[in-house]
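for the writeup, i need someone to sanity check this before i put it in the appendix. the sequnce is what the collaborator sent (i think, or maybe the updated version? ugh). structure was predicted straight from it, no edits. if anything looks off just tell me and ill rerun, i have time this weekend
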Amino acid sequence: MLELKTIAIGLVMLGATSMPALAVGLIGAKAMEAIGRNPEAAPTIQTNLILTVAFAEAIAIYGLVIALILKFVG
């Protein structure tokens, strides 16, 4: 039978992988929409896009760290 700890690890990884992936998809879609509407602003939009995607991916890494802590500590 699955332990509660294993289920918690699975739920953390589910949230830590699916939510940032959804965020990156939405960020990319909105950036492409903005560039399509205003091509002159593409460099500024691209800079903000890359920075925002990096923050979204950092959240995924935090989730991985939490899952590893749950697995190996306690």
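DSSP finds two helices and no strands in the chain. The chain has a mean pLDDT of 92.
thx in advance!!
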